[in-house]
Specification:
By secondary structure, the protein is of the alpha+beta class. It contains 6 helices and 14 strands.
Length: 250
């Protein structure tokens, strides 16, 4: 019987490029393709090994002289609700996230463009076209969902769907042991609730209801202001030479 080639994934190494997180550093990545019937199980294994997904590619840093990028995951059952996080969760009581298939929309793209313009104007994603965005969302061979966040409506407690303008979007993979937040964005002009924080808290609550022990937040980079917010969600585990261990201070 002929076996699918993704039973034995091939790994490749990128050329050096400027690091988007630390000035003066060069980054390299090792990557492989996530395609075919074995993509979901491969995605599970690679995520446990510190890889991240982008479309049908799984990648992780392979920098020659730097190990600053650390994979982090939040321990759902032990999650610590600080006063600040409780306040953010309460402020978001009128926001509801609806789970939808991994399909793009014009409304999502408009919000995506607004978010990039306001928060990441000099980032590498600013040149993404509507087609590029569509590929980011729907080019997947793993179990992926889109969570759309809107204001709670009169029927939301029944339907689980909000109403009004789109406030935030999270592209999320469901793994065997958790939810992996691939990419999220939100309306930068919304005041009151911190939508970025709220969406992470919502994922923690969803994972708990689903009986999943972890929420994967990608990479934390010490010394990078862009990644500092991830340290708020404790306890969390960091992936190091000895596997997943509690972050320092836990």
């Amino acid at each position: 019987m002929t076996r699918h080639p993704t039973d034995h994934p091939q790994f490749y190494l990128t050329a050096p490029a400027p690091c988007p997180y630390l000035d003066g550093k060069q980054e390299r990545k090792v990557f492989t393709h996530l395609i075919g019937q074995h993509a979901p199980s491969l995605n599970d294994v690679l995520t446990h090994g510190g890889f991240r997904r982008s479309q049908n590619i799984a990648y992780r840093p392979a920098c020659e002289d730097c190990r600053a990028c650390i994979s982090v995951r939040v321990r759902v059952d032990d999650f610590e609700w600080t006063k600040s996080l409780k306040r953010q969760w309460k402020l978001g009581k009128d926001v509801v996230g609806a789970r939808l298939p991994a399909a793009p929309s014009a409304e999502q793209y408009d919000l995506f463009r607004s978010y990039l313009t306001e928060r990441h104007e000099d980032g590498g994603m600013t040149e993404m076209s509507v087609l590029d965005y569509a590929m980011m969302v729907e080019d997947t061979h793993v179990e992926t969902m889109v969570l759309e966040y809107r204001k709670t409506g009169p029927d939301s407690f029944i339907t689980g769907v909000g109403e009004g303008p789109l406030l935030g979007v999270a592209l999320t993979d469901q793994l065997a042991d958790g939810l992996s937040m691939v990419y999220s964005f939100y309306d930068p002009e919304v005041t009151g609730v911190g939508l970025g924080t709220y969406m992470i808290l919502d994922h923690i609550q969803r994972a708990r209801r689903m009986g999943l022990p972890y929420v994967y937040l990608g990479y934390w980079v010490e010394g990078s202001p862009k990644m500092a917010y991830k340290a708020r969600f404790q306890p969390q585990e960091h992936l190091g030479p000895d596997g997943w261990t509690l972050s320092p201070g836990q």
